[in-house]
Amino acid sequence: MDVLTQNFSLYGRGFLGTVQLTVYASLLALALGILMAAFRVAPVASLRAFGTVWVTVLRNTPLTLLFFAVMLGLPRFGLVLPFTVFAVIALGCYTSAFICEAVRAGINTVPVGQGEAARSLGMTFDQTLSAVVLPQAFRTVIPPIGSTLIALAKNSAIAGSFSVTELLGTYKPLNEQGYNIIWTFVWIAVGYLIITLAISAIFSLLERRWGVPR
């Protein structure tokens, strides 16, 4: 317990850093993921192509490489931001590809007749998607989106290697101070467990409220 009690503020900063990364990156991932899913089912070929390229590239790019590309590449184009913002961009964009596929799979579960009925009433593609298809798809994609966001929370550990305050990075100063490395990582693991269990509880609640009965 000494590792935790004597360094509670350090663990606290790392924990809050990971929570912030997870929340902001999740919001970005959800926004981009839903947008890319809409692109992938859009009637416009160029949008479908863009969505396909987005998902294919990001799903097949190692997250660490994407961090390097964002952290080192964007400043070369004159975009200079705090490292935390760069980390949110990298995590959010990477995770959006997986959110996109989960949402697209949910869209495919909605009967085709629903969209055809909406179009017969004169609704546009945007109206059909937002008012008819996505609300029904949402009920089926709650579990996979929850699992994806849990993975995002764990992936945020990579940000510590890029001077971003997060939970895993707390082991470095503690190791330098001579604390037992095993207990250092035990309390780090507890912190991640709290975060992932919180996400799981939120999505379990959403699934009980809106999910499709099995």
Name the descriptors.
single chain, 214 residues, mainly alpha, MetI-like fold, 78% helix, 0% strand
Topology:
Blueprint: H1 2-6, H2 8-40, H3 45-59, H4 63-73, H5 83-109, H6 112-120, H7 125-155, H8 171-176, H9 181-210
Helix pairs in contact: 2-3, 2-5, 2-7, 3-5, 4-5, 5-7, 6-7, 7-9
What would your notes on this structure say?
This protein has 214 residues and is mainly alpha-helical. It has one domain (2-210): MetI-like fold. 78% of the residues lie in helices and 0% in strands. It contains 9 helices and no strands. It has helices at residues 2-6, 8-40, 45-59, 63-73, 83-109, 112-120, 125-155, 171-176, 181-210. α2 packs antiparallel against α7 and α3 (45-59) packs across α5 (83-109). Pfam families: BPD_transp_1. Residues 15-203 form the ABC transmembrane type-1 domain. It is a multi-pass membrane protein.
Strand-residue proportion: under 5%
Largest sheet: none
The oligomeric state is single chain
- Individual helix count: 9
Mean pLDDT: 89
The CATH topology turns out to be MetI-like fold
Count the beta strands. 0
- Helical proportion? over 70%
- Tell me the number of structural domains: 1
CATH architecture assignment:
Orthogonal Bundle
Spell the H/E element sequence: HHHHHHHHH
Radius of gyration: 20 Å
**General shape:** elongated
CATH homologous group name? MetI-like
Which spans of ≥5 residues are poorly predicted at pLDDT below 50? none
Distance separating the two termini: 43 Å
Structural class: mainly alpha
Give the CATH class. Answer: Mainly Alpha
GO molecular function, one term: transmembrane transporter activity
Keywords: Amino-acid transport, Cell membrane, Membrane, Transmembrane, Transmembrane helix, Transport
Protein name: Amino acid ABC transporter permease
Pfam families: BPD_transp_1
